[in-house]
Amino acid sequence: MQKIVLQVSGGIGKHVAATAVVRAIRKQYPDGQLIVVSAYPIVFRHNPYIDKNIAYAEQLSFYDNYIRGANPKPLFLFREPYNESGFINGDKTHLIKVWCEALGIAYNGELPELFLTRMEYERYFPLFNAGNGLPNMVMQTHGWVAPANPDQPNPHPYSWARDIPASIAQEVVEAFKGRYNIFHIRRKDQPALQHTFPVADVDFRAMAVLIAMSDIRLFMDSFAQHTAAALGKPSVVCWIANDPEQFGYKMHHNIIAPPGTLRPDTRNSVYREFDISGIDIQCPYADVREIMQAEKIIAALQEEPVAKVVAKSV
């Protein structure tokens, strides 16, 4: 049996997207032993297409166990999709397709997949059960990249290139408070929203259960929108610097920011025009309301197919 080693680095959202790559690999190599080495093995837990799910920090004796004397020789799939021409050039090719093509794997429209167990639902459901009979709304308004020093205040808690401005997000909350239990996925160093339940100290599997059991969802370009796609949950997703054709999914209602009105300073730009961290001098907007409007987001959350599809699944 040939061993196939897929290496995944980066953030949680990229790991969720990688589950689609896993499915494509399994289709191409149905009899291989698929070994995934990653930064977040929690994402791949219970995935039936993976034979070994290993963290980078747990590679003790890896050579002895998986490489030494292997016949046939293992196949190593270590390409970084962010470094591929098709991705850097912004040719509207989705990250998953770019990744598969770089690895020499046939891509046939595979989407991310997460496999939650009944035990996980039973374990995490009480965390998100407000007990008042209201439906649940979930929001992720800010990216999940942690500051370099977690013991120090985050000097840049808001990224214009990716995050939903706190003032806009609060307007959305005001429109739905009292009708929904509103759960806000965020880190402690990120802006809080009034009238919401913060979701900050739970692991990824718990947040996936929260998304799976939610009724409506508002996300930006981070791990939650990938997770919703992996669970088949249509959501409203806001986009600014990145493009949903590269990172998003057609099942979502994707709201794309209009072109900026200012000329950005891109002297420090390298392979992409905007740094996703939201460098101030690159910002082409004079006001956050040029980027997005609360009214448009509220209308999208109330539209089909988001509300209708979810209502059928509850």
The main β sheet shows up as: 6 strands, parallel
Strand adjacency order, main sheet: 7-6-5-8-9-10
CATH H-level name of the largest domain... which superfamily?
A: Glycogen Phosphorylase B
Percentage of β-strand residues? 5-15%
SSE pattern, N- to C-terminal: EHEEHEHHHEHEEHEHEHEHHH
How many beta strands in the DSSP annotation?
10
Q: What's the helical proportion of residues?
A: 25-40%
CATH fold-level topology of the largest domain: Rossmann fold
Number of domains: 2
Mean pLDDT level: 92
What's the CATH architecture name of the largest domain?
Answer: 3-Layer(aba) Sandwich
What is the radius of gyration?
Answer: 20 Å
CATH first level of the largest domain: Alpha Beta
Description of the structure:
The chain has 314 residues and is an alpha/beta fold. The protein folds into 2 domains: 3-103, no CATH class; 118-144 and 151-313, Glycogen Phosphorylase B (Rossmann fold), CATH 3.40.50.2000. It has helices spanning 12-28, 62-67, 85-88, 95-103, 118-124, 166-176, 204-212, 223-230, 244-247, 288-291, 294-302, 306-313; strands spanning 3-8, 33-38, 52-55, 75-77, 136-140, 181-185, 197-199, 216-220, 236-239, 253-256. The strands form 2 sheets. The protein has a 6-stranded parallel sheet, sandwiched between helices. The radius of gyration is 20 Å and the shape is globular.
Search tags:
disordered C terminus; 2 domains; four-stranded parallel sheet; alpha/beta; six-stranded parallel sheet; 31% helix; 12 helices; 314 residues
